[in-house]
Amino acid sequence: MKEKSKLGKNNPLVSIIIPVRKIGEYVMNHVPKILEMDYKNIEIIIVSEAKETVKFPKTKVIKVGRVNPAGKRNAGVKESNGEIIAFIDDDAYPIRDWLVHAIKYFENDEIAAVAGPQIVPEESTFMQKVSGYVYSLGAGKQKYVYTPTKFQYIDDYPTCNLIVRRKCFEEINGFNTDYWGGEDTKLCYDLTQKLKKKMAYDPKVLVW
Fold first, then answer.
1. In Å, what is the CA distance from 128 to each residue of 22, 150, 173?
2. Tens of pLDDT along 37-63?
3. Of 21, 108, 147, 199, whose CB count within 10 A is highest?
């Protein structure tokens, strides 16, 4: 039986959450790349420990002080309006059709989150490429980072490229701030084991 969409529209607002200690070169270089994406119905929320401002469109900065990454992401979601929440790190930027590929999965009510590869860009230095290769050899959730080339369901993924249905995020009360390291694994566990929802991995949902 075909599952009915609960989105109510084909291009829901997506809130892109970027936690930082302070706004640096990565953010200044990568926010323009986010704004160049094919999917335009977005807002960008930078969560910083300091009081800062940027002049990018569709972008705001909120100050949270010294809190852990889980707390920063929760604060970003609280200030957001999107039906879909996209988590990305400041040292990553998406391909142009990142969200175009991801959003279609949320037409399926059973899917709570979508993830994709995190790949070192071709223009990276030799040592950066070596670092990426080392990560690709890791165990556990890192096995999802570089190697899969086809769609699959997963049960764990890091938040440098994780897109979550807001309703599901709120049902599990977001990130558990008791975790500093492993907060993304706890979130994924709650989505898949407590809510009994699915997480989809698509190699086209890619960030550099």
1. 22, 25, 36
2. 999 999 999 999 999 999 999 999 999
3. 199
Residue 118 has pLDDT above 80, yes or no: yes
pLDDT at 80 over 80: yes
* DSSP secondary structure, 19-74, as one string: E-SS--HHHHHHHHHHHTSS---EEEEEEESS------TTEEEEE--S--HHHHHH
Q: What is the mean pLDDT of the chain?
A: 88
User: Is residue 4 exposed (0-12), middle (13-18) or buried (19+ Cβ within 10 Å)?
Assistant: exposed
Q: Other CB atoms closer than 10 Å to residue 197's CB: what's the count?
A: 20
The C-alpha angle 43, 47, 53, rounded to 5 degrees, equals 80
Q: What is the reported pLDDT for 60? A: 97
Residue matched to tokens 């907060």: 183
